[in-house]
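Q: How would the structure tokens look for this protein?
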Amino acid sequence: MVDQRVTRPGPTPPPRKLHLIYRFHISPAVRAALAEQELDELPDGSHEVGVIEWANYRKAAELAIFPPIGPALAALADPRAAVTNAALDAVTDKNYTWV
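A: Here is the predicted structure in token form.
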């Protein structure tokens, strides 16, 4: 769980969000049917195309993921390890910068 209080790029006012993050297994057949791109809003109202990639959870700490859960994922002993503390630090303009 991650509490978000950040200013995003674009004209949308900064909301306060609570991100609930779920971990589950996705079979190769389901992965093949999922979207491979997403559109991110830019400050001028246009959109940037983001490419969706599958990565090993150990690489998550090296990636620009939002909410910033990469270090917590990479620290798991294995992908199915029990999570003992699911609350992560709040994300604010003081500790996060959009890339």
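The chain has one domain: 2-83.

The chain has a mean pLDDT of 81.

Upvote if useful.
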